[in-house]
Amino acid sequence: MKKQKEKDAADAAALQKQQNADLLKAQEQYQKEQQTALNAYQQQQAQAQKEYEAEQQRIFEEQRKAAEAEAKRQEERLRKLNTLGPQSINVSDVRTTEGANLIIDLMQNAQDPQLIQARLQTKAIQQLNANLISFVDSYFNNAVQLI
Predict the structure, then answer these.
(1) What is the overall mean pLDDT for the chain?
(2) What is the pLDDT of residue 50?
(3) Burial (CB count <10 Å: 0-12, 13-18, 19+), residue 98
(4) What is the domain range of residue 36?
(5) C-alpha 136: how far from chain center
(6) Could you read off the pLDDT of 52-69 as tens digits, one per residue?
(7) Around Cβ 46, how many Cβ atoms within 10 Å?
């Protein structure tokens, strides 16, 4: 009977040892699965971040191109507005009152080319300031005014 009890105790200890080994193996397997899942999640997040950055860069590039096109359009519009355009005066126009008034109006409305250039430069500086503010805002999220 004593041998039977010793054998039962040894079997129980071996069974307990086997269960502990199985439990340890299951825990290790679970940790490996968790680590694999974590790595996959991190890779997925990194990929999503790269896609987001690429999309942001594409949007920024499109905005820059649109701003450049708008600046060119505005510059051309200002240039057209600030020039008198092709107006010709015939000799016969000077002899009439209407023709004399046309010449006087032309002289009064004539603009200095340097004044036109100064306006265009001011507009370009204002556009540059707006671009710098939008650039700073996009990276620092604070409005900065340049004087």
Answers:
(1) 81
(2) 93
(3) exposed
(4) 1-82
(5) 11
(6) 999 999 999 999 999 999
(7) 10
Distance from the Cα of residue 121 to its chain's centroid: 27
Question: Position 93: which residue type?
Answer: D
1 vs 6, 9, 10, 11, 30, CA distance in Å? 9, 12, 14, 15, 42
In a domain, 138, yes or no: no
What pLDDT, on a 0 to 100 scale, did the predictor assign at position 112? Answer: 64
Q: Is residue 130 part of a domain?
A: no
Query: By the 8 A CB rule, do 144 and 136 touch?
Result: yes
- 3-state SS, 4-17, equals HHHHHHHHHHHHHH
Six token digits for residue 45: 């997040």
3-state secondary structure of 25: helix
pLDDT tens digits, one per residue of 2-21: 778 788 888 888 889 999 99
Most trustworthy range by pLDDT among 44-53, 70-79, 113-122 = 44-53
How many domains does the chain fold into?
1
For residue 96, give Cα distances in angstroms to 62, 106, 108. 56, 15, 18
pTM of the entire predicted model = 0.39
